[in-house]
Amino acid sequence: MTFVYVHIVWFAAWIASGVEGFPFGFLTMMVSLEAIFLSTFVMISQNRADEKREALAAHQWELIQLEKDQNDRLIENVELEKTQNEQLLDLSRQILALTTEVRELTNKVHTHLQTAQA
Prior knowledge:
It is built from 2 helices and no strands. By secondary structure, the chain is mainly α. The model has no long low-confidence stretch (mean pLDDT about 90).
């Protein structure tokens, strides 16, 4: 707002001092040139801001892609672990079945030996 206040004072002083007459041609030309420069600066500023936003968006897109790749790898690992867990479960069941079978055979042999000794 300082910029606006300075210009209000400047224009009021220019008009009040009577440096030039009513149509204020020179003042109008100065204000027009100032408007041209200000609009140019605004456009340059907007272009720089757009470049920053584009760079930020590109960076965010890279992060999203990295997260997607990481999620895909995690899903693959979970599926692999699931398969491995299923294999371990199957092996555990087979071991249990064999252990049960060995116990039964051991009991039969033990019973047979007891009967043979008696």
